[in-house]
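User: Predict the structure for this protein chain, please.
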Amino acid sequence: MPALVASDLDRTLIYSAAALALTMPDARAPRLLCVEVHESKPLSYMTETAARLLTDLGDAAVFVPTTTRTRKQYLRINLPGPAPTYAICANGGHLLVDGVSDPDWHAQVTARLADQCAPLAEVQEHLLRAADPVWVRKHRVADDLFAYLVVERELLDEDWVKELAVWAENRGWTVSLQGRKIYAVPKPLTKSAAMREVARRTEADLTLAAGDSLLDTDLLLAADQGWRPGHGELADTGFTAPSIRVLPDRGVLAGERILREFLGVVRGA
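Assistant: Here is the predicted structure, written as structure tokens:
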């Protein structure tokens, strides 16, 4: 039976220039590989060593990129190694099979959201009304499933985020602050549900996962083994569990460490 590796991407395996956290002297910095270009500019990176590890992992396990990104945002990433058969996008709202969203899975998800939480329109209207234009730069809706704000982090009133989280909780939604983005996501929209579906289809007998944000919590807890880096929302809150390994590594070198950990388990299984 194959092992399934479901990993978050941004700030887990791939990193923007601002998130690299390179603390060593410049001459000792790792060589980087650009894995995403947006509007003709390099946007996301991993180390060249991480690229080799990911290629090896893709040969040894069912690797499933697992992201809150929309399908469009995910598809501009060019990861090294074998092209993944499956990918989880929009926080589980879309299950891509060979790059195409599975319509049956998406229909199941949208039916669950309609039944279990407040509608997206209500949440979007609240965000438009309540957010302060002083620190909001963009309002966005992702694949008609959830909403997020792009903000000026240094101007953001983080008490407002806490108040938003309480408001959202009462409507079946959750709030996550990641870098310059505030996400409002329906609670039934989860990466873990999509991971379980891929595990069922592939008959995987071992599931591994990694992630750094609040939106990765359910994924990490659902996997047989999970890893989180020393940065991000989960590190800031001290989140852990018996099946989760907390790594001290931060920034792009954490991505490299996570891939080493994945490979070590897969090869030893």
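The chain has a mean pLDDT of 96.
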